[in-house]
Amino acid sequence: MKFTLNEIENAINILIADKIEGSFEISTDTRTIKKGDLYLPLKGENFDGENFCQKAIEIGAVGCFYTKEKPKCKIGIKVNNTLETYLKIANYARRKINPIVIGVTGSSGKTTTKEIIYAVVSEKFKAQKTFSNHNNEIGFCQTVLNMNTDCQVLIVEMGMRGFGEIELIDKYAEPDYAVITNAGSAHIGRLGSLDNIAKAKCEITKYLNKALIAHNNERIKKFADFDGEKVFYSINDVKILEKCPGYSKFSYKDNVYEINIEGDFNIENSIPAIELGYRLGMNYEEIKSGLSKYKPIEKRWEIENIHGYNIINDSYNANPESMKASVSTFMELYNNSVIILGNMGELGEKEIDFHRQTGMSIGEKYNSLKNKEKVLFITVGNLAYYIGVELKKAGLDVKHFDNNIATSRYILDNIDIGTTIFLKASRAMKFEEIIETLKGDKI
Predict the structure, then answer these.
(1) What are the φ/ψ torsions at residue 331 (nearest 5 degrees)?
(2) 2-80 maps to which CATH number?
(3) For 319, which of 7, 79, 239, 360 is 20 to 30 Å away at the CA?
(4) Is this model's pTM higher than 0.70 or not?
(5) Residue 84: which H helix or E strand, with range?
């Protein structure tokens, strides 16, 4: 998106001395900057983009934002804080194009829910969304500044690792609608308690305009400080009509919907999309059609056949709630299987207890199944070891390995072709290494 210098002045409320005609794109990365761009240097704990202002000019930038010394360039724009400047420009663009803005957050499921909402609203509107999981304040700015001028609905995913982060994005996004998928134990190591997690997620209501659609969670209800319309939902609100690998059919508020993915949690993630669709003036057929077009994105229940092994990769991220839900779904639907579970991160001083409790829950779920099929569990990592301890107590077959390469070698040497293999872990476990090895890319 391009801006004139007058627009930038209006956005950041600073007079620009070096005025020239034209409109300019804003770049924060010298690796991708183009001739004629304005370079906006961001700063972090371990980097200072302002050190690269002169390089940006040499590459072709026509000017720079700066906080220290003015670089030698045609346009120099002095600001106090470059991230705040980026956010103000993004807010200016949000108001200029003025799409309906939907904010999405939650301890788990927010990216999937964002993608499902996008699939539904795209049936009627020109919609855009946060790319992948670029859900921090910088990702928000990139999302807004990449908007097409005819965008009608913008879906913004909002992530957080501590207090104030969602509120900051919310301030500049000014959402019309907000979705909170849940408030579970993800990041409890940083925030200290489930109450604090719920408080942080509920920051999305701070600048909310029209309606909150949130998981029916007592903590969310307690901390969601919003006077407008509130809708609380859960899997208990639907009647599941059919579920099998790669397909779910359910009834919600007397209408029947289908989605091409399994899992009660994915049915639950569909409810906000349905609720939003009706609030945006969509009819039943449009919502139903959009929902049926949803496809999982990379590492979220991603299905692939690798040299005869049926791989289901759900290893983008994991916390106790998401691991228990996804493994339960897998055990219900798949036979002749191997389930590979890795460490879950950011669970704080009680991380071993969380892993043990997860193992206990999965073991109880397996033993409650009516038609139990033999399953092999493989745990990978020092914390996942404790999941395996509890699975063994439940009478299940468990193997443990310290790393992904050893896990892969065991599969290749011992697991029959045709077996379905499910992977779930936090991103830091890099379970894609297992898939690469099975493909023969890494031995």
Answers:
(1) -65, -30
(2) 3.40.1390.10
(3) 239
(4) yes
(5) helix 82-97
